[in-house]
Amino acid sequence: MMIVVLLVGLLFVFIAVKITTNNIKFSRHAITTTGEIVDFKVSEHTREDNDSDDSGTEISIGSSTTKMYAPVISYTTEDNETFLYESDTSSSHPSQSKGDKVEIAYLPSNPSDASLVGFSSRWISVIIMSILGTGLIFLGAADLIS
To answer: Which Pfam families match (predicted)?
Structure first.
């Protein structure tokens, strides 16, 4: 069983390295411009809330729905082409509003390939995958060694 944990950890670290490599390549070739938030894509996520009765039977006690907002950004390239970029990052309480200006980077060879400029938009997934992967590797290796 712990060999599976070790392999999943290695997979997470591999994915983190791959994302890092892609981010670095993108950063080397990307051009930065100012975009404007023109809309928010709204998605709904429903969570079922369950509990157990005295006999241990699981019962539903309701559900809750959360709306998530991902900014849609309009930006213009050096060639005066306008594109829309929908952020991969969403939140239930957006910190920005329509009309706000944001920095966005795009590839001149493929202007529709864009990304928000900022630490969290590029590196949070790498950090999470690295921490989880390293933890799973240590957990799996420690069990295999003992």
So the answer is: DUF3592
101: Cα within 13 Å, side-chain hemisphere: 4
**Which H or E run contains 75?**
strand 58-76
Per-residue pLDDT of the chain (146 residues; tens, 9 = 90+): 788 999 999 999 999 999 999 999 999 999 999 999 999 999 988 877 776 666 767 766 677 888 999 999 999 999 999 999 999 888 888 888 999 999 999 999 999 999 999 877 788 889 999 999 999 999 988 888 87
Rounded to whole angstroms, the Cα distance separating 36 from 53 reads 51
